[in-house]
Write a structure and sequence with these properties.
Blueprint (H helix, E strand, L loop, with lengths): L4 E3 L9 E4 L6 E6 L26 E3 L3 E4 L4 E4 L7 H6 L14 E3 H7 L6 H7 L1 E12 L10 E6 L12 E10 L3 E10 L1 E12 L3 H29 L3 H8 L12 H10 L8
Parallel strand pairs: 8-12
Antiparallel strand pairs: 1-3, 2-3, 4-7, 5-6, 8-9, 10-11
């Protein structure tokens, strides 16, 4: 914006405002001058959809590599025993024992697995944002070759919003000549944005953590018993009742021979069995 007020051209309408001249008698229609590219953008959703039904057979290739540093295991989502022929023809199918590890998926199938196949028309018209999750949960006791990913799909954007639904972005291409100066072509692109999330964990049996956890558990059990007895005996209202049930009072009769005397007598006079 230059900040200058200039006479308003006819047909602009909304940008005009009334400004009286200095004598206060004449009303002049004026507008603020701006510097802009011409002509102005025509923000119209393309009909029919630019992608359309032809895009249903488009394929997406997912390539992902991970490493579990603690175990020194590296894996990627393309099976190590796959062949070039299989990779060219396979398509992801979660219900197939082999093709569920195929990294190539058809675009329409992706919408179907995400449960949004009924939103295909709106996504190809206004664009959309689709999440692809790759999860690695591996038990390395079965061998690294059995560590394979699982895929999940969902749509992130809300296609029902009234303001700016879907996904689009703008970019410009600049060109020009010495005689006409610089010009540009402004392109508003609609498309499907893939947001890929990767997560997972791996585990392997080890004797050392097992023994540590076992010893800790036994120690906690012993401490827990002592703490429970201490609280019950000293803090509960019925602590006297608990003491009576847990402990038994024993009175020693002085007339009975002591255990030490009995032991001494038995050691001094051993029993001897005579033969018949």
């Amino acid at each position: 914006m230059t900040g200058r007020c200039i006479p308003l051209n006819s047909g602009v309408g909304d940008a005009e405002f009334d400004d009286k001249s200095w004598d206060g008698n004449v009303t002049v229609k004026k507008s603020c001058e701006i510097i802009s590219w011409c002509p102005l953008e025509k923000d119209v959703t393309p009909v029919p959809a630019l992608l359309g039904d032809d895009a249903q057979n488009f394929t997406v290739l997912l390539k992902n590599s991970i490493i579990f540093r603690k175990f020194g295991v590296k894996r990627r989502n393309i099976p190590s025993d796959s062949t070039v022929e299989w990779l060219k023809t396979c398509r992801y199918n979660p219900n197939h024992s082999v093709d569920k590890y195929c990294p190539i998926i058809k675009l329409y199938d992706l919408f179907s697995y995400a449960g949004i196949s009924d939103q295909w028309d709106t996504a190809t018209t206004n664009g959309g944002v689709v999440s692809i999750s790759i999860t690695w949960n591996c038990n390395l006791d079965h061998g690294p070759e059995n560590c394979n990913p699982e895929y999940g799909f969902s749509r992130l954007d809300d296609p029902t919003v009234a303001l700016s639904p879907g996904f689009n972005f703008r970019y410009s291409q600049y060109h020009g000549t010495a005689s006409f100066g610089i010009s540009r072509t402004l392109i508003k692109a609609y498309g499907i944005l893939f947001v890929i999330n990767i997560n997972g964990e791996a585990g392997k049996f080890s004797v050392v953590p097992l023994m540590v956890n076992l010893a800790s558990g036994l120690a906690l059990l012993g401490v827990a018993t002592l703490m429970c007895d201490f609280v019950v005996i000293h803090f509960l209202k019925q602590r006297e009742f608990y003491k009576e049930k847990k402990y038994e009072d024993v009175e020693v009769d002085d007339e009975l021979p002591s255990m030490a005397g009995l032991l001494h007598q038995s050691e001094a006079s051993p029993l001897v069995q005579k033969p018949h």
